[in-house]
Structure formats: C-alpha cells, structure tokens
Protein 1
Amino acid sequence: MASRTGISRRAVVSGGVGLAAAAGIARFNIVRAQSGPLKVGVILPRSGVQAFIGQSCQRGADIAPEVLKELGFKVQVALMNADTETNVDVARSRAERLINEGAHVIVGAFDSGQTLGIAQVTEQKGVPFVVNIAAAPQVTEQGYKTVFRIFPTSGDLIRNGLAGFKDVFAATGKTPKTAVFLHINDTFGQANKAAIDKLFPGADMPFKIVETIAYDPAARDLSVEIAKAKATGAELAMVVTRLNDAILMIREMIKQRWEPMGIMSPGSPGMYEEQFFATLGKYSEYPISVVPWYNPKTELSRIVEAAFKRKFPNDRLVGHALNVGFTFEAILVAADAAQRAGSTRPEALIEALRKTNIEKRMMIGGPIVFDEKGQNKNVQSAVLQNRDGGPKVVLPKEAAETAPVFPMPPWSQRG
Amino acid sequence: MRARVLLSLLAVALVAAPFVVSGYLVSVLIVALYFAYVGQAWNIMMGFAGQLSLGHALYVGLGAYTAAALFVQSGVPPWLGLIAAIIVAMAFAAAIGFLAFRFGISGVYFALLTIAFAEFTRIGFDHFGWVGASAGLFLPVSQRSGSDLLALRGTPTMFYYVILALAAGAFALSRWLLTSRIGFYWMAIREDQDAAQALGIDTFRYKLAAVVVSAAMTSIAGVFFAFYYNNLFPEQIFSIGRSIEIILGPIIGGLGTLFGPVLGAFVLQLLAEALREGVSALGLEIPGLTQVFYGVCLLVVVMFLPNGVWPPIARRLRL
C-alpha cells in the first residue's frame, strides 16, 4: 500500500535491505579497530577433500583463547573462522572477507596452494599472516614481507627426518644396509622426494636406496608396488604416505608377508594418526615417523592437553597433536606479537613478529625465531614410534616417553 | 530492445563495480566472471553442439601450465604464452575429438572419454618434472604498486577487468556463433545428428570444430588462472571437481542459451557467498554448506526448471 508520499512500505523495506547490503559490500567499510581484542582470522580447509585435517587444526584454534588467558596474556583473542572448502578460489576470497571485517592477523591454511593464495591477499593488504602448516619452500621464498611460517619447509622436514633415522640406528645398535623408498605421488610426496633426492647423497646415511617406487594418491590397491618393493630385498621400507595409502601399504605387507627391519617415514603423516590405529589394530604397532611433534613433558603441553580434554572430551590430543600444536602455536605467535607491540595495527604487529622469540613451546624445537624471510629458524622433529595403540616419542631423549624398538617384531608375532 | 537495455545496465554495473564495492566483493566477482567465462566456453560444446564434456578442466590446466611454464622457464610473456596455450589445447581437443568422432563414440561414452583424458593428463603432469610435477609450479610474485597488463602482473582490479573483458568477449563470440551458419549446424547436430547428416551437414567436421573452439576458449581461462593465483598443482587444476564446477553454471543458468552461463555463475557464486555471510551473521559455523547449497541448487533446477533459470526469466521479461 502506497503512502501519501507515494512511497510504499515494500519500497521502504527494499531500500532498507539494499542499504544494509550496500553497507556490507561497500568499498570503504574495512574495520580497523585500534583497540579491543586481537581479531585472528583462522582460515582452514574444514570441508572438501582436506576437511578432516582442517577440522583437526581448528581444534587448536578453538582452545587457543582459553589457553592464552591461562598463560596470563593480557591480549584478548577473538577468533574469526573461515572455511576454504579445500579450494584456492575460496581461500583467497575468505581472506579478503576476513580482512574486510577487521581481522588484524590471519592464521592458516594447512595446504601450500591455499596458503599461497591467501598470502597474495595479506601482502596486498599489509596484514600479517602466520602460517601454521604448509611445507612448500615457496611460501617463504617469494619475497613476501607479511608472511611468517612456524612449520618446517619440506627440505627441513627431510633433513630432520634423515637425522632421526640415524639417531634410531645409533640408539638401537641396528643399522639396515639397503632401503626401498615408497612415496605417494601428490604435491607433498613429490616435494619430499625432491628433498630426499637432494639431501640424501650428502646426509652420510648408512644405507643405500635400491629403488624408488611412486604410487597414485587415488590408488585403491598397492599389491604391485609392495611386490616390487619386496622383490628388491631391501631391509628398510622408507615411506612418504598419507593416511589411506599408509593403511593400504601395511595391509599389503602383511598379505605378502614382507618383513622389513622397519617401516620408517622421514616426515609424512599417515602412520601416527588415530584412524591408522583404529583400522589396523595390532598391526599398527612399531612403524616409525620422524615428524614435528609436541613435547608431552613441557608445561605448555600439559596446559594445552587439559584444555583440549575439557573442550573435546571424546578425543585424544595425541590423535591431533601436530595439527593442534602448530595451529595453537601460530595463534600464540600472533598474540605474543600483539602483546609486545601494544597495538593491533598491522604494521606494529609485523614489526613485532619479526622480533618474535618464544621459548616456552608446546612443539619440540628451539625458540620460535623468524629469519629475514619469515621462516621459523628452530624447527626440530621428534622420532615417534607406534606403541600401545598410539604414537609415542622415542627420541630425542629429553622428550622420550619410551625407548625405540628396531628392528620391529614380525607380523606373525603381534599380540 | 529490452535485452540491449538489460545488457547495458549489466555492463555499466560491472565496469563500475571495483570503484563501488570492497576488495572482497571484487575477488568474489572475479571468481563469478571466471566461471561465467569458462561456462560460456563449455556451453559452445554442450549447449550448442550437444557434445557432453565432463573433463573440461583438462583445457584449463593445459592453458595454465603452457603459459605459466613458458613464463617461468623461458621468460615468454603471457600474451605470447597465451597463443601457445591455445595451440596446445586445440591440438589436444582435435586429438580427442578425432578419436571420438572417427570411431563413433558419442553420448555418455564421449563424456567418459573426456574424463579419461583429463585424468591421465593429470597423472602425466604429476610426473612432468619440467613443470614442477605434483610439487607444483610457482610463478614469481613481485610487489607492485601499479599494474603491468603486458606481463599480467598487477592488482586484483586489473585482473577483474581482464576477466570482465574475457567474459564479454566470450559472450559476443557465442552470440555471433549462435547466429552464424556454424551455430545452426551445431544446433541441428544437437537436436538430431542423423537428420543433420541426411541434410548434408558434415557432422564430423562441425562437432570437431565445436570441441576445438571450446577448448581454445577454455585454455585462455587457464592462462588467467595461472597468472592470477600464481601457483599450479595438477591435482587441483585437472581435478574432476574443477570440471564439475565449470559445468554447474551453464546447467543451472540454462544450457544452450547466451545468458544462462553468466546467470548460473553469478547465481551460484553470489548466492553461495551470501549464504556463507548469512550463516556467519547468525553466529553459526557450518563447514561444507556451499557444497550442500550447490547440490540443492542442482536438484531444484533439475526438478523444477529442467531448462535452467534463464529461459523462464527471459520469457517473463519478453526477451
């Protein structure tokens, strides 16, 4: 019904909706609060192919405000969560949106491709970006001034991984002479293979790689690959896996009765994950993964573990340790910078991030200190061995929960 | 007349958008225009000529990798790389088309063939060391205050106008094709191939032409993708998921129509974004909501608007 002014109620409502929409999309609506809480935009792949890992990382973010409060941080942290849907287009637009809504710092994004998509936005907007997990060296090699990564590069992962192998051999007094290298042929697997090809010759390893076997990430059957690996007669299976293929691989080894001295990963996921134990039961025991991990003995780890238990009573931290640990530490780094800067202005945060020096950590390694490219300089890996239904730290000694077992017991002699 | 007014209004709105809306919405519009463009390219093959391709990500990937690899490895400028990209994509399309049409492969079998080519190309690129294999190919990123259109390096606003020009060009080309002799041949083949053949249309030749034109156009989108995102991974760019994303816009908008792919892309991207915002404004967090939304859209369109969203709108607007 039109009023005397000739403007109908419907027109007024439509206009109001239009104005509200315009306020949301307008060019100059970037919120730039100078005081109040530190708004942390957490961008993770919480749906799509990487949903499981993205959601696992999100748990680290969810417990962060509470833990930081417990640690005595005066800076209040407000999380602004976004889902990349495992899609680089969405990752980029989500970063734009979060910054538009006033995020002071961005944390994410688990995957290198999505991380690089976000980095272009944060660099352009001058907003700091703390990368929790992403191993492609290019993340910190592209010359970005706003990107800081606490996770190791694929080169660091392998360097630490190979060193961990030697530590195991030294600790147990048993050394294989030959190895077969099996790796998944995706982005992560290829990056690891390239790093192994580059680093292995100079690493003075006690064994030689007799054959390298790659398999497709979508493979549903690894019988040919395992038969080929067994036929090499190698004493050690050096593997770079993800979860599903790691399960397939072990099943196939049992089926084909291949008994290598050990199954060791120089830095890949898969064998220490909850689903691996749940699916394989007693056969999940004894594989070794040398990966960045948390030190269960530090005070911060205990606080995080308690907070995790309160928030997620049905889950074990050990099943999410890497994802939770690095995501929590990324937010810790951001909060620490805001506290020291005494401001949430991006320039002040970036300046403070460059001077980061966090000694009390959850993850194993030295203090978090960034080099001039924004890469954490003190990244270390732990040697994990699957024992008693979960991954246990066996090296370094100061973090060890139990002693390493190598060679592993034959399949037929499992519980 | 109405169509021209509508087009003019749309054109003015799109040209003015970067001056009016935030950077965030510009990035959403870039994605919408990108899908409008590739949707238009796919529509030529399926909507006009009736050849179903479910592996169109192949041509995006080939275009992206060709131009990006030439740029990274040999410093070839992107616009020259674009020509190489088009040639490579056309060669692949001609090979696929020749194999299929020469041996009478059609319908779902042709669709399966397109998936197969996309998949084995992905696997091939996973092992192709010169382009980084599955570890990815990264374009160097430098900090610039301005834009260099010749080098395709610059701000999102520059990329917005590039993709807007591409989408407008694709629209104009599609319109011209649709009203030209080849367009009528394609539609005849789409409606009844045997009848078209009986009337003397060289179906092999014109079907092949549809595949090649569509692939060439799609490869240009690949070049844009490479220089906009600056990193390429075979498992992302050649994935079947990408192929499905390409075809959703035209299916929802209206197959075989000119506005359909544009409308479909905008409906999907903008409504999905609005949905995310609405849910977030309510304080809810529902990962995967967009995928569910896409599924529901597809379901609704298939059930209630089998010809897509655009035809009833066009009827209502008497276009």
Protein 2
Amino acid sequence: MIYLDNCATTKPRKEVIDAMVEALTNDFGNPSSLHRLGLLTEKKVKEAREIVANFLKIDSKELFFTSGGTESNNIAVQSIARKFSKKGKHIITTSIEHPSILNVYKYLEGEGYSVTYLDVDQSGYIDLEMLTNAIKEDTILVSIIHVNNEIGSLQDIKGIKDIINKSVSKPILHVDGIQSFGKVDFSLKDLDVDTYSFSGHKIYGPKGVGGLYINKRLKLNPIVFGGNQESGLRSGTENVPGIIGLGEAVRIMSKNFEAESKHAFELKKYMADGILKKIDDVKINTSLDNTSSPYILSVTFRRTRGEVLLHYLEEKDIYVSTSSACSSRGTTKSHVLRAINMCDDDIEGTIRFCFSYEITKEDIDYTIEQLKLAVDDIRSIMGR
Amino acid sequence: MEKVISVSLGEIVLKGLNRKYFEDKLIKQIRKAINDLGYEKIYKEQGKIYIEADDGVFPQITHRLRKVFGLVYISPCIKVEKDMEKIGEAAVELIKNKLAESSYRTFKVETNRSDKSFPIKSPDISRAIGGVILRNFNELKVDVHNPDIYLYVDIKQNAYIYIDRIKGYGGLPLGTNGKGLLLLSGGIDSPVAGFMMAKRGVEISCVHYHSYPFTSERAEEKVKDLAHILSRYMGEIKMYSVNILNIQKAINKNCPENQMTILSRRFMMRIAERIALENDYNALITGENLGQVASQTIYGLNATNRSVSLPVFRPLIGFDKVDIIEIAKDIETYETSIQPYEDCCTVFLPKHPVTKPKVEDIEESEKALDIELLIEDAIENMKIYTIS
C-alpha cells in the first residue's frame, strides 16, 4: 500500500497502538476517581501532557486536551468571540480556512458579529497589508490557518502578529495548527500566538483526541459544561487511551522531527520533479521552498478528472485525495482552490499528495508511473 | 376478550379456482415477514386471514405487514363469540380506547355478516351495537354519512370487532407472477420500478452497471443499500454487478459521441437479457419514464428496446416525476437515491445526446464494435451479491 493521504489522517504508529492497548487493558480507571486506580490514570494523563507541552515548549497548564481539531477550533473561536464581545464584534479570518473555522465564523455572523474574510493570492498567502487595513477598532479576533490542508501554504504568523501588535485594538490571534503541528518547525512562544489547535491523528496518533494551547495570559470560558475536567475548559471524562496514544505519538515525533521533515521535503521535491518530467500539461500548486509544508504537494493534471485519477490509483493500492467530487448535478468544488483563483477545469484535475515517514522514493516512482498510465487513459477518453 | 390482527385481501378474492394458491402464497409471505416476532397462529376464516399474537407486538406486526404485497387492510381487532352482549362489550372497549386518543363526536357501526346462520341481520346488529355505544358514551352521536369513527363488526365463525384499518399496498403475493430482472441504478426511478413489479407478485433480482474507476465504489455501495431497502418488501435479492467501462470506452472510441447513451443502454439491455436467460428470469424491468431524459424519448426507448426480445416492463412509463418521488419516499428509497454518488461518470455523457435516434443508424454504428466479445467480457467479470 502506498498511502499518500496523510493530511486526511495517518496510520497510527505501532508504539501508539501498543500504548493504547495497554491503556485500555490496564489503565481503565477514571482520573477523577479518588482511589489508586484513578490516581494511576491521572498520572499517565499528566505524563502525556508533559510530553506534548515540552514538544510545544509551553507550560503544561497552557495545554488542554480535546476531542480533536474541530473541537479545539470551536472552543477557541466561540469562546474568544463571546468573551470580548463587549469590546467589539468584528472578527477576521481567511478565505482558505478549514470548515471547523469557517462554519463557526458563519454561525457567529448569524449571531451579529461582522466578519472579514481575507483573500489570498494565487499561491494561497494572505496579504499582510490587507490584514493591516482590515483590523479595526472593534476587531477582537484574527484566526489564521497555519498550513492550509489543500495546498500546503504556510502563513507568516510572525508577520501577522507584528501587525496585530501595532494595531490599536490588538485582537486575539488564534492559529489553526492541525496541519502544522509536528510538520513544520516553529515556536509558539516566539510567534507569540494566543491560542493554537492541533489534532492527534495527523501525526500517527489516534483519532478522537487533540489539544488546544491557550496562552496563560488569556482565560477562556468553556462552551461545554460538566465535571470540570481539563481545568474546567473541557468537561467530560478524559479520553485516557487517546491522550496516552497522543502522548506516545508526540514523544516519537519530537525525537524524529528533523529527520522526518527532511525526508518529506525531499520526497516532495522528488515527486514534483518526477511529475513535471514524466507527465505533460501539469501544474504544481504548492511552493517547493520553506513557505509551504514539506508534507503537502498539490498538483493539477489538466484535461483529467481528479476523482477518476483517484480511483485508478486506488486500484493499484495507492491512496490520494482530490478537492472535488464528480457529480452529474455539477461538481462540488473546493473553496480553497476557488480562493486561489484556479479555473473550474483545473480544480477538477487537482490531486493532493501528503507524505509520511513511511513513503520511499521507490513508492513515488511507482506512483508517478501509475499516474502517467491513468492520465493518458483518461485524456484519450476526454480528448474526443 | 381475545385480540387478533385481521388482514383483508385485495384482488386475490377475485381469483376463483386459483384463490387457494394465492392465499397460501400470501400466508407464506406473512409468516416470513413476522416470523421473528413470535406470533401464535395464522388462520383463514371466511375470506380473511387472522394472526394471533401477543398484543404488545401488534404495532411491529402491523408495520411489517404493510410491506407484504397482497394485503389491502390490516386491523387489530377483538375476537369474541357470536353473542350480542359480548360484541357490545368489545365495541365499548374499542370506543373507549379511541376516545382516549382524541375527542371524537360521531360514529357509525358497519356490520358484515358472512355467517348467514347467525339469526340477527346486519342492519339490526349495527343498530343494536350503536345503541350500546350511545348508552355508554354521552358525548357521541350517530352520523351515518360522515362519521369520525367507523366501528366494524364482522360476523364469521367468530365475531370480530375493530375500528382501525391500516392500508396495505395491495397487489399480489410475491412469487405468484414469475421472476424479473430489474436494471437497478442509483437513481430515484429504478427502485420504484422494482417495487411496482414486486407488488404485482414478481420475484425480483437486480443487475447494476458501473464504470469503475470512472465511478466510485461508493456508487456500488449505494445501489447495494437500495437493494437492501427493497429486500424488506421482496426478501433476499440477488444483485449482479457489471463493469461496463470497456464497453463505454469502445463506444467512445468508435461511435458517434451523441449516440453514447443509447448505445450504452442497448448493451445494458443485452447483458441483462443474457443474465435473465441463463437464470430463468421471465422479464426485464426498468425505471424508464417517457420523456424524462434524452434517451427516454419514444424514439430512444424504441432503439433501446430493439436490442432484446424478452418482455421489458416499464411500470413508470406514464408517471410524472413528482409521483415517482412520492412513492420513493413512501417505500423509503428516496433518501438513499439522492446521495451524490453517480453510477455513470459525466465524462461519458454526450453534450448533445441524440433525441430521435433511428434504429438503422444505431445498428450501423454498432457495426464498429465487437458486441459479442464486449458482452462476454463484461459478464465474465461480473460480481454477484446476495442482499437481504
């Protein structure tokens, strides 16, 4: 199997699975229980929290476990918007966010907030000057996707924070880090973001667990109420096996971070070069330098259909992703590819490849070989 | 007072000498539908079928029976001896329960005396029981033209008293009219077409065409879901799944673009006929509907039809789309049908499909294809599923 859909989800590492089986088998206590079994699981959760906090170089009190990226984004945006609503009701984000931000913004728009959606250029980057102009006296929140999940563009968070610092209203900065956590090198403290969300299953950890960093100068209120777990921010009995699995995934990732990102970066360049060499009429949509994620490569195969390519490859046990789904009632097209001004025909032929430590150059060679066969076949049919 | 469910039969009662055959088939279907619910007895009594079971499972039994073809009405009733006093008590009990549901003001008693040896005549029974009801319920009045409540009294070997009549689908018991092969796509129409023919007693199997990898595996999964829903009415369904990508490629390469759909459909019909003949199906069934799309004009249907000689049943031919949708919703296939996964890739849809194809032209175009080889190849690679 050649799994190149690692932005959708990743295969959990063996160590993660072992740690979780152990947790499910033996550490089944509830961390809130007063007895020894409860204490034991509480300690394991604490250990996992330390591992993740150390990796992010933050205080473990600034880290809150959640059910994943969507919940983290929801807590951050909803809670910030409510907390500062007396100060203002203007919130900013980009036009290439994940639905877990966009749909919260849409919901808040319905609640009376005014929203500015920042456009991006053809490579998927926001214009810092546009942000400068967008921040008004009543702006309370700027939410930015760190690495875009479809084209891999990496936003200049430092530049964004500088602009926020120079503004009068100094809005809170939330960063959606689902595709950047463990994938690109940065420091939350250097970037000085206020909140940052991440997910476990994008870094070879389990699904159903993630986290939210909240800078200690900021106190947020919960959006779900209950037994006051996670310092009251996120009630609900801790997903102990999930948290332990996440901890294990981060532990290995922090050890391998440099080597694995370098590997991904090389694969990405290797694949882009190979495709350009072997297949004509293609367009590489992701930059090949350090302004995008080393793990993501978006390519348009003109005069093809992405979904058909996807199924051709799946027949060969190669798994990729498209940004559009084929339908006789009109294709549903990605808002991200629309935002970077891609024409409809190109959107239909766009495929996303997302790498992992397990992929080799031989895998890439085989994939390109199969891609070429599929592209030729589809073009011979569509060309009529 | 014993409670039973009565089932009234539709057209079966007109079957003359064959009636017993149809009734027995129907009882078999009823038994199959409710087997796991734990009934005590199913018996016939002067034209109706009765089910004895714990009244706690009556709602489930009724729900299941609604999906059995050949039934017209399903009624939970009270069964008593043919004794006026007991019939009166049963009537009071039923009316009391009915009034607890909602406030009704008027009623009428309707009696059907199949057992002519019972000395009191129908109108007199109605009048007497009506009197009992009036004495017990001050708020009710008789209205013989437009009553809120009908109370029915059937005098057979026993007396059966009931109010609710739940409508069944009618039709004929499954398996009393041979076997048909339904061309099942993922759309709204074909599952309805299968349902309509099953309702006439035809046992249904399906054939599904796809063009993977130009279509998604989810498209096939969706069709399996539809077959699963249909199986609630028809029992186990055999589904043949045929990949026709090579056929579409060959047509695409060798034939005029605007005939693509008609030519593909002719192949689908031929393959279906081949499967039908090998497996003893007596007819093909399609969801075609006159004028709905370019390939379903009278000329298109003619061109498609000419490719086979088995009878092709098109039960939806004269329906409007809204009516088809209404049935699809009623039989619960609609929600699945409108899921987005397509069984035909838009790549293969002509921009301007021919609406008045001439059979001679179509046959001329087909000369460029090795029809026999393409069909054999498709059938050889076909997958067969059993869905229930």
